[in-house]
């Protein structure tokens, strides 16, 4: 299947366009050939890890991603890590996206890094890599091939003003009531359009300027849970699930900043949350 | 439009004689049959398939209403070629001027036929939020459709020239048509029509029959709009997809059942702390046998619904 | 909202077709105005080609030069967030990112001339196709530069990557290293 077909397939599912291939593509110069993908990954390793290479993970880090993304602008992905105490940091990399690093997480003492869930945009047929940095600094990776297209350039159905409504709103939900010392899964929801600068207003032919969440920090009292650097590969209104080993402070502070230097901060009284 | 494609298109048109671009249309014309669903209301049933070169994106139910003075096109078709077929069918039936072309919402299978009616200079009617939708996505849709049908069969994105914010009435001569603009439901720009003389309801894509409805507006909104319309006890109805004429009660009940299954399933997942991935795999599966193209759209509908409902 | 605006908008969409046929007048030298906009229908000294001719020239071994600009990193993006957009082009093309610049003075001219001379082995009769995107002056400029440099078989392909993709497969093409290094 070609990349353009994928665009047709997934760019506009709401409108009845699941249809026949436009043309055949020779495998040699195909962007989807294993050789081309490997070459792309090597370029990425050079840039992101400054030449360090990541070894196959042997089960330390596992990436779960759909084989075919039904909605290219909202592709759920899960990274599992075990044993959790071996890992310092995590990257989620969508190889063929223009800003491939979707998220770079550095875990703190209050983190439970066993599982993280992301929602990302996928602009292509692409490999996706989850790379973990171990305590000794070495890197291990797991990869999945995902078929999707148009997640970055597919135009929003609504205007810029509409998409900006409620920007900065945060929600935090827990799977179970929070108890100090007991690991718990938290879901952080952020209201932000994450404009990636590639969505064109089709009438003015102007691109909606990029404006996206570039940093999220989560602290339990004074203790770091994690810091995350992110880019335009995160979906609009991103939702992150992460593990936490609550301290006794009872207060979880989330700070979010975006590329236009707007900062949002919220303190959650987690021991008394009933949601 | 790129220069190159514009050149190509013109060259093709002039070089081969204009008839070449009509050939696929002629071939398709045999399959283009109209059903008179109410006196002087003619509907072409769209095929329950995805757009392709053979069906010219003629996948939606489109048609026209003939008044004593003029004609209203209820939806224009999925491509310029599809719209041209409709126009030819109109001219087979009547010489009255085409005064209005309705663009029922911002999806390509409904609005790309509008180009076929430009030289009749009708009023193009759309929801007040239709320009926004077409501005954001029209050209994107056009490019994709060109990839399937080729440049000459697709046509331009035509903007509405009259906008409906709440409700408006059109008189075709002894025949009043009431147009209602809806809150976000199937899309953010849904318009429905009522032919007051026959009592026929034309809700466009607010009603899908047999074909899985794609969610591109608001799930809660769609359920709410459907419930409100159901209270009006309409009878004969032309759905946006499915048979040309159905009874609104049972047809809308089936759609409502799918949408509420989606809503309740997604809510249950959210309430129990379930993930969107899990929801995408499981929610709505009990409806699988009831809808054509189910596997192509249900998971995406679940994802859309999940990201809408988790904020409520 | 004013309905008139949308009448105009509709006209713009429709007229896009007719408008593209007219074309801007050819400037005397290189174009130094806005890079995106109406381009001329002609280029003195070069042949204007469509996608069929471009594919024929490719098969005959012509040198394909893509002068599309690389998409720029969104403003505000931090330096440790790498920006590596995949550039899709005609398979086998050499990508001079930003090579269609109309200004740049003698240094840019030398860099352009030197890299083309390397790629053609100094053969001024080598067929060369210049392209980028539709309504992009970059490829017009590049073709003009080639004509001015004395190349005898210069082809300007205004449809560019988009026209190519409508008929054939595009492929990811990396920045031409020698071209990039010529910048230093």
Task: Give unreliable regions of chain A as ranges.
Answer: 1-30
Q: What class would the helix/strand composition of chain A place it in?
A: mainly beta
- Under CATH, the topology of chain C can be stated as Oxidized Rhodanese, domain 1
Indicate the structural class of chain C. Answer: alpha/beta
CATH 2nd-level architecture of chain C:
3-Layer(aba) Sandwich
Can you tell me the CATH architecture of chain A? Answer: Sandwich
* CATH level-four homologous superfamily name of chain C: Rhodanese-like domain
Largest sheet: spatial strand order of chain A: 1-8-7-4-5-14-13-16-17
> Mean pLDDT score of chain C, rounded?
85
| Main sheet overview of chain C | 5 strands, parallel
- Chain-averaged pLDDT of chain A: 82
Proportion of beta-strand residues of chain C? 5-15%
Number of helices of chain C: 6
Helix residue percentage of chain C: 25-40%
CATH class designation of chain C: Alpha Beta
Overall number of domains of chain A: 1
- Report the largest inter-chain contact: A-B, 45 and 47 residues
Form type of chain A: globular
Question: Describe it for me?
Answer:
The complex is a heterotrimer of chains A (275), B (312) and C (184). Chain A has 275 residues and is mainly beta. Chain A has helices at residues 3-11, 34-48, 160-163, and strands at residues 55-56, 61-64, 75-81, 87-94, 101-107, 115-120, 126-134, 139-146, 170-174, 184-190, 200-201, 206-207, 213-220, 223-230, 239-244, 251-258, 263-269. Chain A has three helices and 17 strands. Mean pLDDT of chain A is 82; it is low at 1-30. Chain B has two domains: 1-198, Ribonuclease Z/Hydroxyacylglutathione hydrolase-like (Metallo-beta-lactamase, Chain A, 4-Layer Sandwich), CATH 3.60.15.10; 206-312, no CATH class. Helices cover 39% and strands 21% of the residues of chain B. Chain B has helices spanning 3-15, 23-29, 80-93, 108-111, 130-149, 151-154, 219-230, 248-271, 276-282, 294-309, and strands at 34-38, 41-44, 62-66, 71-75, 98-102, 123-127, 162-164, 167-171, 176-181, 191-195, 200-208, 236-241, 246-247. In chain B, strands 1-2-3-4-5-6-7 form a seven-stranded mixed β-sheet, with helices on one face. In chain B, strands 8-9-10-11-12-13 form a six-stranded mixed β-sheet, covered by helices on one side. In chain B, α7 links the parallel β11 and β12 (236-241). In chain B, α2 (23-29) crosses α3, α8 (248-271) runs antiparallel to α9 and α8 packs across α10 (294-309). Chain B is globular, with a radius of gyration of 20 Å. With 184 residues, chain C is of the alpha/beta class. Chain C has a single domain, classed as 3-Layer(aba) Sandwich (Oxidized Rhodanese, domain 1), CATH 3.40.250.10. Chain C is built from six helices and seven strands; from the N terminus they run αβαβββαβαβαβα. Chain C has a five-stranded parallel β-sheet with strand order 1-6-5-2-4, with helices on both faces. In chain C, strands 3-7 form a two-stranded antiparallel ribbon. In chain C, β5 (127-131), α4 and β6 form a beta-alpha-beta unit. The interface between A and B is large, with 45 and 47 residues.
């Amino acid at each position: 299947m070609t990349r353009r077909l994928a665009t047709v397939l997934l760019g506009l599912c709401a409108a009845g366009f699941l249809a026949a291939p436009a043309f055949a593509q020779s495998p040699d110069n195909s962007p989807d050939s294993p050789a081309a993908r490997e070459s792309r990954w090597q370029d990425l390793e050079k840039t992101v890890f400054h030449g360090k290479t990541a070894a196959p993970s042997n089960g330390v880090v596992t990436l779960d991603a759909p084989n075919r993304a039904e909605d290219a602008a909202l592709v759920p992905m899960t990274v599992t890590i075990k044993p959790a105490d071996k890992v310092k940091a995590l990257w989620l990399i969508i190889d063929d996206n223009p800003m491939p690093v979707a998220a770079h997480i550095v875990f703190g003492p209050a983190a439970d890094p066993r599982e993280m869930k992301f929602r990302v945009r996928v602009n292509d047929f692409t490999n996706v890599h989850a790379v973990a940095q171990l305590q000794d600094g070495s890197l291990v990776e797991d990869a999945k091939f995902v078929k999707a297209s148009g997640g970055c350039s597919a135009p929003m159905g609504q205007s810029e003003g509409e998409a900006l409504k409620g920007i900065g709103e945060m929600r935090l939900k827990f799977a179970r009531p929070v108890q100090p010392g007991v690991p718990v899964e938290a879901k952080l929801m952020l209201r932000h359009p994450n404009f990636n600068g590639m969505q064109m207003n089709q009438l003015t032919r102007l691109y909606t300027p990029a404006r996206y969440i570039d940093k999220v920090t989560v602290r339990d009292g004074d203790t770091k849970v994690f810091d995350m650097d992110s880019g335009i590969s995160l979906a609009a209104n991103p939702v992150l699930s992460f593990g936490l080993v609550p301290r006794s402070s009872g207060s979880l502070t989330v700070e979010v900043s975006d590329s236009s230097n707007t900062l949002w901060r919220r303190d959650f009284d987690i021991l008394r949350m009933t949601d | 439009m790129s220069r190159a494609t514009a050149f190509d298109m013109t060259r093709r048109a002039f070089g081969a004689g204009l008839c070449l671009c009509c050939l696929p249309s002629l071939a398709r014309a045999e399959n283009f049959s109209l059903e008179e669903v109410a006196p002087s209301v003619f509907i072409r049933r769209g095929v329950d398939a995805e757009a392709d070169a053979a069906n010219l994106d003629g996948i939606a139910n489109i048609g026209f209403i003939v008044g004593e003075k003029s004609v209203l096109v209820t939806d224009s078709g999925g491509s310029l070629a599809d719209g041209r077929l409709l126009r030819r069918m109109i001219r087979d039936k009547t010489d009255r001027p085409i005064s209005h072309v309705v663009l029922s919402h911002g999806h390509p299978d409904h609005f790309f036929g509008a180009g076929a009616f430009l030289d009749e200079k009708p009023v193009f009617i759309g929801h007040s939020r239709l320009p926004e939708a077409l501005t954001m996505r029209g050209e994107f849709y056009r490019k994709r459709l060109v990839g399937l049908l080729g440049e000459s069969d697709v046509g331009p994105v035509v903007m509405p020239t009259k906008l409906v914010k709440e409700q408006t009435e059109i008189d075709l001569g002894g025949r009043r048509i009431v147009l209602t603009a809806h809150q976000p439901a199937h899309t953010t720009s849904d318009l429905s029509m009522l032919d007051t003389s026959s009592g026929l309801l034309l809700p466009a894509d607010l009603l899908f029959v047999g074909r899985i409805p794609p969610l591109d507006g608001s799930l809660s909104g769609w359920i709410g709009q459907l419930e409100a319309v159901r209270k009006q006890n309409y009878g004969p109805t032309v759905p946006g997809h499915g048979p040309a004429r159905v009874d609104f009660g049972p047809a809308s009940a089936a759609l409502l059942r799918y949408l509420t299954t989606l809503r309740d399933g997604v809510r249950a997942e959210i309430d129990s702390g379930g993930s969107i991935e899990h929801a995408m795999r499981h929610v709505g599966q009990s409806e699988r046998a009831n809808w054509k193209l189910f596997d192509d759209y249900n998971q995406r509908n679940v994802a859309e619904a999940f990201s809408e409902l988790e904020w409520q | 909202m004013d309905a008139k605006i949308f009448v105009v908008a509709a006209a713009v969409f429709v007229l896009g077709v007719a408008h593209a046929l007219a074309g801007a007048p050819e400037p005397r030298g290189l174009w130094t105005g806005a890079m995106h906009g109406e381009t001329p229908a002609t280029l003195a000294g070069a042949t204007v080609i469509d996608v069929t001719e471009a594919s024929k020239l490719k098969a005959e071994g012509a040198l394909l030069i893509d002068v599309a600009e690389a998409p720029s990193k969104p403003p505000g993006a931090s330096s440790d967030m790498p920006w590596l957009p995949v550039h899709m082009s005609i398979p086998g093309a050499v990508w001079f990112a930003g090579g269609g610049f109309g200004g740049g003075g003698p240094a840019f001219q030398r860099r352009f001339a030197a890299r083309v001379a390397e790629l053609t082995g100094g053969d001024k009769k080598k067929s060369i196709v210049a392209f980028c995107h539709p309504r992009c002056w970059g490829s017009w400029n590049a073709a003009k530069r080639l004509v001015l440099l004395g190349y005898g078989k210069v082809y300007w392909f205004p449809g560019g990557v988009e026209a190519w993709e409508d008929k054939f497969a595009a492929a990811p093409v990396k920045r031409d290293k020698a071209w990039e290094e010529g910048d230093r």
